[in-house]
Amino acid sequence: MIASFGMYDMPHLRDAHDRYWAGIRTALGYGPDQLNRGGDPWTEWQSPDLLLAQTCGLPFRIRLHEKVTLVGTPDYDLPDCPTGHYFSYLIRRRDDPRSLAELSKLGVMAFNDPLSQSGWAAPLAHLEERNLKPRKTLQTQAHIESIRTVLNGQADFAAIDALTLLLWAAEDSDAAAYLDAFDRTVPTPALPYITALERDPKPIFDSIATAVSNLTHEDRCALRLKGIVNLPPSAYLAFPIPPAP
Questions:
Q1: Which residues contact 88 (CB under 8 A, 6 or more apart)?
Q2: What confidence tens digit (pLDDT) does each residue in 49-94 have?
Q3: C-alpha closest to that of 20 among 150, 243, 245, 207
Q4: How far is residue 184's CA from residue 18's CA, in Å, rounded to a whole number?
Q5: What are 218-244's pLDDT values in tens digits?
Q6: Is residue 37 a contact partner of residue 180, using CB atoms and an 8 Å limit?
Q7: Contacts of 73 (CB under 8 A, 6+ apart)
Q8: Three-state SS for 85?
Q9: Per-residue pLDDT tens for 111-143?
Q10: Would you say 75 and 227 are in contact if contact means Cβ atoms under 8 Å apart?
Q11: What does the mean pLDDT of the chain come to?
Q12: How far apart are CA 175 and CA 103, in angstroms?
């Protein structure tokens, strides 16, 4: 069986994620002893051996919704955000006073992946609502790399998953001090938990709820995790598919 929390499994959070998974496994009564790390996410997401993983909303609605079973949606501690949702912060360097319009027309927008809701779909929709579009883009493969390209001047702005930015900033406050989260996108459903197509999701959902409630205060705060909620697949499928870069 496969279990993975790769989307937010930063090095400084691996121990907390291990304890979180141990709680799920204990409540469920079965599952792998350890989380999978370093595997190909698309292979894991589509494997018949998948017990639990987290994907992004855009891959779910484009490719996965008919190939996996939705378990539930984690509810994170994010400022001014509806239950079970998240958003993207638009970031620039703190010494860069340019507006979003100026950045989009004259600068470079870093993005992690064209199949990222937070890094690509959300900022495109945000710009389109303002009759803007990025003049030039730079693909980085990961949100943390997008942050670094803005910090080192390779890019001028980027849209970063709010949870990723807050988790990263908690660990690297010195670097975070050089960034300005100057805008935010409309909230969309948070990154869903999924299991294999033929697997019953209810025992997994209940085990996650139990594990979250049993987390220590320190682990719950470190992961910014409040619980799990039931959002239907239609909540994810309702959003448009963005154009490719």
A1: 118, 119, 122, 123, 126, 159, 160, 161, 162, 184, 185
A2: 999 999 999 999 999 999 999 999 999 999 999 999 999 999 999 9
A3: 207
A4: 31
A5: 999 999 999 999 999 999 999 999 999
A6: no
A7: 84, 189, 190, 191, 192, 193, 228, 229, 230, 231, 235
A8: strand
A9: 999 999 999 999 999 999 999 999 999 999 999
A10: yes
A11: 97
A12: 21
Domains and CATH numbers, the chain: 2-76+189-237 (3.40.190), 88-186 (3.40.190.10)
pTM: 0.96
Find out whether 103 and 84 touch, Cβ atoms under 8 Å: no
Task: Compute the CA torsion angle 143, 148, 154, 160 (nearest 10 deg).
Answer: 30
Task: Give SS3 for 207.
Answer: helix
pLDDT-based confidence at 30, cuts 50/70/90? very high
3-class secondary structure, 99: coil
Strands 108-111 and 88-93: unpaired
Alpha carbon distance 244, 227 (integer Å): 33
Residue 86 backbone dihedrals phi, psi, to 5 degrees: -150, 180
Q: What is the pLDDT of residues 144-176, one digit of tens each?
A: 999 999 999 999 999 999 999 999 999 999 999
Judge whether 231 and 84 are in contact, CB under 8 Å: yes
- Which residues does 10 contact at the CB level (< 8 Å), separation at least 6? 144, 167, 168, 171
